[in-house]
Amino acid sequence: MRPSLLLGTSVVVLVAAVSCSRRPSEPIGRLSDVLSPVAPNELRSPEAFAVIADPSERSKALFLEASRVLLHPRCANCHPDGDSPYQGAGADWKPHYPPVTRGPQDKGVVGMECTSCHQDRNVELARVPGAPNWHLAPREMAWVGRTPRAVCEQMKDKSRNGGKTLAQIVEHNAHDELVGWGWRPGAGREPAPGTQERFGAIVAAWVETGAECPSEEARP
Ligand code: HEC
Ligand code: HEC
Predict the structure, then answer these.
(1) Which ligand has the shortest distance to the CA of 95?
(2) Span 98-156, pLDDT tens digits
(3) Of the residues 63, 70, 71, 78, which should be mutated to test ligand 1's pocket, given the most ligand atoms within 8 Å of the CB?
(4) Which ligand is nearest to the CA of 117?
(5) Can you tell me the distance from the alpha carbon of 139 to that of 5, in angstroms, rounded to the nearest whole number?
């Protein structure tokens, strides 16, 4: 073998050795460290997570994937950290215009009810989004400004998730109509990544692997 070829081969072996050095139980910081990249508007399939051998680490990684939807503005605008919704593309969290507040039942106040503007479907010409029973997520279901871990902990906590079992959490994410609006937000609004069906499958896989929460630092 010529020396240059030999050198080439040993470089390849070295690279392979380095990329295999991650111990299976080492906590995952970023999904792209262990999984193939995914387009911002897509979700990985639950099967893509099979490469993570340890079920508890796989569960945490599945939640990080789900958090790409949960913390997307289509969801989080309606799961705000205060008494008013947000609007727009997120990151800067623009307050809802006109100013509205949740009122006693998260449905607005007399004269400014959510459903006086928001119909049971999107009204495209007026750019008013809509879905049946449009109202704000209760205060204890706030996601804006929280880490994926914090959202995970509260979503499992019956005192903060509307008394839901894990099976009901899967069902809500997979079939609820306000959730479903996140993928049918109307013209000019970016939908949540992937599809509701795939998102439901990710949440179901998270529950099946023990509904583990990622570390405080972990981000998708
Ligand atoms: C128009 C407002 C609105 C939008 C948009 C919205 N939600 Fe919600 N969400 C609510 C309300 C209201 C509740 C409480 C209803 C209940 O408990 O049945 C809720 C509760 C939940 C819950 C159960 C409680 C919890 O926090 O664990 C989950 C899960 C959830 N939403 C997921 C989503 C996801 C995912 C999206 C985006 C794809 C989304 N929501 C978009 C209003 C909204
Ligand atoms: C006076 C009319 C009016 C009232 C009342 C109203 N909204 Fe809105 N809302 C709008 C309009 C118009 C938009 C679209 C803003 C835009 O994106 O240009 C909007 C957008 C939103 C969005 C952003 C959706 C997204 O992600 O793009 C949320 C969330 C929302 N409203 C929730 C509520 C809730 C909850 C209430 C009741 C507490 C409420 N709104 C009351 C008119 C209203």
Answers:
(1) 2
(2) 999 999 999 999 999 999 999 999 999 999 999 999 999 999 999 999 999 999 999 99
(3) 78
(4) 2
(5) 64
Query: Rounded to an integer, what distance in angstroms lies between the CA atom of residue 142 and that of residue 149?
Result: 13
- Ligand 2: which of 71, 110, 118, 135 to mutate, judged by most atoms within 8 Å of the beta carbon? 118
Q: Is the peptide bond before 98 cis (omega within 30 degrees of 0)?
A: yes
Please choose, from the candidates 153, 120, 160, 115, the residue with its C-alpha nearest in 3D space to the C-alpha of residue 137.
160
Task: Rank 8-17, 26-35, 97-106 by mean pLDDT and report only the highest.
Answer: 97-106
CB 15 within 8 A of CB 27: no
Query: Assign residue 211 a region: left if phi > 0, alpha if psi is -120 to 50, beta otherwise?
Result: left
CA 185 – CA 201 distance, rounded (Å): 21
Looking from the CA of residue 73, the nearest atom of ligand 2 is: 26
Distance CA 79, CA 145 (A): 10
Angstrom distances, CA of residue 121 to CA of 14, 93, 126, 157 = 57, 24, 12, 31
Could you give the CA distance from residue 212 to residue 203 in angstroms, rounded to a whole number?
11
> Does the CA dihedral 173-174-176-180 come out positive or negative?
positive
| Pocket, ligand 2, Cβ cutoff 6 A | 73-74, 77-78, 85, 87, 96, 98, 100, 102, 108, 112, 114, 116-118, 127-129, 135-136, 189
Amino acid type, 17: A
